[in-house]
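Why does this matter for the project? Reviewers at the last site visit asked to see concrete outputs rather than summary tables. In response, this paragraph embeds two records directly. Each consists of the residue sequence and, immediately after it, the corresponding structure tokens. Nothing has been edited or filtered.
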Amino acid sequence: MNGGSLGLRAVSYGSLQQLQQIQNGFSHNLPTPGLTRKSSKLLLSSSREKERVLPVVCRFLGRKRVTMLLLVVLALLVFVFNSFTVNKESSNVIITQHSENVIPYRKDRSSSSITFAGMEDKHDIKIPSTENTVKGNVKHRILIPSPSHPLIQPSTVVRDHCENFAFPPPPPTDRKRYGPRPCPVCYLPVEQAIASMPSFSSESSVLRNLTYVYDENPIRIESHRGSEFGGFPTLKQRNDSYDIKESMMVHCGFVNGSKPGHQSGFDVDEADLMELEMFHDIIVASAVFGNYDIIQQPKNISEFSRKNVPFYMFIDEETEAYMKNSSVLGNSKRVGLWRIIVVRNVPYSDARRNGKIPKLLLHRLFPNVRYSVWIDGKLRLVVDPYQILERFLWRQNANFAISRHYKRYDVFEEAEANKAAGKYDNSTINEQIDFYIKEGLQPYSEAKFPITSDVPEGCVIIKEHIPITNLFTCNWFNEVDRFTSRDQLSFSTVRDKIMGKVNWSINMFLDCERRNFVIQAYHRELLELMPPPRPPRAIIRLPLPLPQSTTSLKTPTRKKISLKRGRGDKKRHRKVVGGSRDSKSF
């Protein structure tokens, strides 16, 4: 290597630098080639210095340590570069989501801010009361509508999540499993379902103000069934209850009490009365009377619902005594998520009829509640109540939802099935059906479409508490009080009478959809009749056999001594020499 070659390398380096500066738009400030060259002496001195320094470093630290140090430095550089790239990309994604995903929400009345914690995606979202901004993770942006701004329709939230959802084909037949099965349901995530709750109550068709009859001493005027709790409404009063006006007064149970739960034939303690009068957006309610069912604990309930949605379980004194004796109920009045409310002085001797009071008259027991989800005592709730309400009320723009019967859709068929199963006295069922026939009851036909069924599966009721739905459940209860406690027989009569007067309808969803969010258990009496489950068989584990080798090992055996002597054997005699101990014995 000589100086000329080094000079050529310097020229090439200078030309590359000039090319880069020209590409960057700074060609007018380029120096001359002579100024950018380095002399050969300088290049030689710098290379010699590097050659002198490197061996000293390698000797001082060792080659392996130098290599490890270089690898660590390289790893740190790669880590810093990747983290910078990820942060840049995530900031771009957040900006896009912030500008696209907008979800309506209703501000809580009782608190100045609303915090979502412990949801499915584990995001914490806090909404200040004075700003329409979101702090924290902005994946689910929430817009608080002002009173002057219309609420964004829930369909905008559902559009992307459930747009392509469709029922899959039915599962193949299974000989080991009979009866109806659940089917898939598209629920919104819990956070979005909470945000989809409307800010204002739905409009009640025609009826605006609904009040209830109060009479300390109701008198039976006509010869028909009924109870003092229901007030013995006459046929004229019954017919007037279907003449819907802007303001109405109807019989709706609790007739001889100043307020429901206080000296009304369905009495609760004062502490429980104060609990019932509290304001709640949503409640879940159930009942067990006559110790008929085993309380089922809800599952898959979000932390937000656990804190803000109360679960009420009504029981009578018989059920209370059993639960206390079995150490299920203590002084806290709680069993899992359920807040237990003990009912005293029940109006009916039939436990099933007593259960119709909280089932159909929840709006009277809870006058300050917006939405309610009723489930029978034999059911276990396995989906969050916000998701249920969003799917079957808010998304459908409905205010009352109930599932169809899984098999029957005609009242006449339902009556015959009740008589065959011994659900109620046959003569009473015939009397009720004959009464409805005189009023014009007809078998179900396609002429009723879009009504798809006349028979509900009444173990679940999803309801918004507004005057028109309250009137429907009041009249439905009056039919149960007058005739049989089989509410499936009177459902279609009450529904059709109200729908004939006002523009109102009920969302009757599929029974397989109901089975998606509740699991049905057996009644207690059936569980007691069932044989106890067999204990698991004891598994006897035998020792593993030893692996057999190619050569068999024989156990050592004693050689048998033959008593027979051969021909060559001679009889040997022991020679004994007297006085000598050194004689040899053979």
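We now turn to the second protein, recorded in exactly the same manner.
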Amino acid sequence: MSGICSSFSPSEEEIGAADLQDTNTNQRKPAGWKAMPFVLGNETFERLASFGLMANFMVYLQSEYHMNQVKAATLLNTWSAASNFAPVIGAYVSDAFIGKFWTIAFGSFSSLLGMIIMTLTALLPQLRPPPCTHEGQLHGQCVGHNKAQLGILIASLCWLSIATGGIKPCSIPFSVDQFDLTTEEGRKGNNSFYNLYYTTQTIVLLITQTVVVYIQNDISWAIGFGIPALCMLFAIVLFFVGTKVYIYIKPEGSVFAAVAQVFVAAYKKRQLNLPSDDGQFYIPPFSRSLLPELHLTRQYSCLNKAALIVGDEVKQDGLCENPWRLCSVQQVEDVKCLINIIPIWLTSVLGFLAMNQQGTFTVAQALKMDLQFGPSIKIPAGSVGVITLIAIAIWLPFYDRVVVAALEKVTKQEGGITLLQRIGIGNLFSILTMLVSGFLETERRLSALSHGGTDGIAPMTVMWLTPQLILIGFSEIFSIVGLIEFYNKQFPEHMRSIGNSLIYLTFSFASYASSIVISVVHDVSARHGSNWLSDDINTSKLDYFYFLIAGISSLNFLFFLFCARRYHYRSSVKLM
């Protein structure tokens, strides 16, 4: 009982169903972990390339292109916004037209092209402004870039944004396609994949924030950009080596058209009464061996009318006469699934507020603390986030191999806990992070004001920030990994790329929400004579701001609980 009554011909639907999921007729069965060295290897090297290129890019713009802080930040924010929106377009193209494999392939080549151009800007003096001394940069006496130089730089960023749109929304769904979810081994492998994916991403971040940044700053920008470009080339080679192992899921047409058809058909039949007989609802004459066990539910029952057969709406061959008047039961339930997911997605936006503060105000705290570690090591303030990455790299494999196994024995639940419970725990950790951050900031500010020197540095080691950095790492483990798994498991199969792109939209909207909160707090508190977020962190009230974020996150958590209690999980997958 699957398939969508859409504008595509039956032969395409039937061929797609047979090729994609019918393990009896397919030439190969899902390879599972055998495909992961190629798929996950490609993703790992791609992330090493993209993170390595961007890890220190702000410094590159200021030191080599002589941009001031505002212009450089504006360029980066614009590029970031485009890159976070691009996965939505890439997901649509993948699900509707060319499929995940070719979308990833196109994105990979776009990424390589963008990185080569970026490397050339560092390698060829003609592609960037002439060198300038540090004194000249401080006094604004450097020769700026011309339009051609800026155009080449922007062209590189455009190709990288296109690459993001191709790779990010499809990499995880394409990996999930390689597991046979009808077997216990395949389901366990699928569950472990999400944790392994985020673990490798964390390790990559550790490498880029240390080794690659060191090469770019202290050795050569050309080498620092060239290494990510070589990694991307290796990722492409590795990806195509595995072509004989992969399972390929063919696109099923426009996702948005199928969703719109349900609403249009339900509206046209709004005057009809729903019968009690399930046999009067439309089920297309297509069969698959791997199906979601879906039936029409009572939730949003007004949409059920879209699948109600009236008169001669079904032709003799079992196909619908007009997809804008009659939709399949599968279509209706898929739309209900989307409606259920939207509130969970909205709560995740505010749930990420705490994470957004770690890259800004935590660094500001570190700058006013003792950065000395031992007799000879001085920790860069911008590198304190490595503590979070180390916590994730250690805890995530332990959670996957030890904690989940223990929880499964107790709860008898696959994965130990439900997906929404995992996301909820992540939200609680984000609240706890802000509370701990607030208390630590209170102590830091009091220490700086009472015992600090003329430079305003508190006589407290920067390692006092470790608790809040570890807690935000736990929040990421439960929230982000949980959301990735939630979207990929709860979205309909033909919409997985769209679902995965929501993660990047969440990051984008969370950044905008954080900017709005910061602006409002800054303006309101300044008007009342006590600026919480002034330029001098020792005279501001950053701890109050942290407590405010904790309050907002707590209200958001209550809304999340309300949405989670009302959420209906998609039915399990069975072998027919």
